[in-house]
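Exercise 7. Given the encoded structure of a 317-residue chain, write a plausible sequence.
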């Protein structure tokens, strides 16, 4: 990987998964957004991982219309928190234009932070919600693939669009996702020489119109950044690095992959057209409106930024 090449100006990029409501961004989010801008990351979908972080994600997105968006949902780690009125809480959030998908939701049997039965319950409840609202779903699966795909298979025909974010699985699992007409999100996992090499071999199976890219910031800092940054916190500004790794793996020019992934993200989340002139200025957060009171930093976001565990939303406990 050539760091200078990474820095080359490329097409406008969209980071489809960044946990910007994480407490590690509380003090310098504007600076991080400015760095994202310099890296051509012009739009970002902020991940909601529990009720509180979904509210916070929407509050942040609302402060930069047409540039920041968010998802609303409950990560499997937080399935325990799913309650009788969770769907109503999410539905209220959906009323805002900035919330563009349900999730993240799915199954995570890697650490079993929530009992598996609760995870499946919350997962199906959110699929039902996505169906009734006609919204795309932002999906998470870790060490639970067969159960995940079995449940999703029963729902898929009732859903509009669905993306498996931070895909880290094998060829069989990738094919199963593609058979269900899923989009596939690739993170800096593919930059990991210990765990991501297999991805480089199989991602050319993903049709061009289903591929999207994401940082999962502040998690999953690409391991092959050169020089390695001082901070272990991942940021949307590292998205071009992931793009170049993906492009190299599928032996395509980075600009082409950028155009495709940006177009896919725009279509998938039905993002409004962006006037090219709007790309000229960095994403800036409007001051907080009194009516959009910000909840306390989400508990879901307490994992250390340097933690390279994939895309889970909870601290060790
Ligand atoms: Zn995830």
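Solution.
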């Amino acid at each position: 990987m050539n760091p200078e090449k990474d820095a080359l100006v490329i097409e406008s990029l969209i980071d489809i998964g960044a946990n910007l409501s994480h407490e590690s961004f509380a003090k310098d989010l504007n600076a991080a957004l400015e760095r994202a801008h310099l890296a051509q990351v012009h739009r970002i979908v902020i991940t909601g991982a529990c009720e509180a972080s979904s509210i916070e994600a929407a509050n942040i997105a609302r402060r930069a219309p047409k540039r920041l968006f968010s998802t609303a949902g409950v990560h499997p780690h937080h399935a325990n928190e799913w309650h009788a009125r969770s769907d109503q809480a999410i539905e209220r959030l959906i009323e805002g234009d900035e919330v563009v998908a349900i999730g993240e939701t799915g199954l995570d049997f890697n650490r079993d932070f929530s009992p598996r039965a609760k995870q499946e319950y919350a997962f199906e409840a959110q699929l039902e919600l996505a169906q009734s609202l006609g919204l795309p779903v932002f999906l998470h699966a870790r060490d639970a693939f067969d159960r995940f795909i079995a449940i999703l298979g029963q729902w898929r025909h009732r859903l509009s669009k669905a993306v498996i974010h931070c895909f880290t699985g094998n060829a069989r699992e990738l094919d199963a996702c593609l058979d269900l007409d899923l989009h596939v999100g690739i993170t800096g996992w593919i930059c990991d020489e210990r765990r991501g090499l297999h991805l480089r071999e199989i991602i050319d199976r993903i049709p061009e119109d289903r591929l999207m890219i994401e940082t999962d910031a502040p998690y999953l800092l690409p391991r092959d950044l050169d020089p390695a940054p001082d901070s272990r916190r991942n940021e949307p500004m590292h998205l071009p690095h992931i793009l170049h790794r993906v492009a190299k793996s599928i032996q395509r020019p980075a600009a082409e992959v950028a155009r495709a992934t940006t177009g896919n993200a725009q279509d998938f989340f039905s993002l409004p057209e962006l006037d090219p002139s709007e790309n000229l200025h960095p994403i800036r957060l409007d001051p907080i409106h009194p009516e959009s009171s910000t909840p306390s930093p989400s508990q879901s976001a307490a994992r250390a930024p340097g933690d390279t565990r994939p895309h889970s939303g909870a601290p060790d406990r």
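Remark. Confidence is low (pLDDT under 50) at residues 292-317. Students should compare their own answers with the one above.
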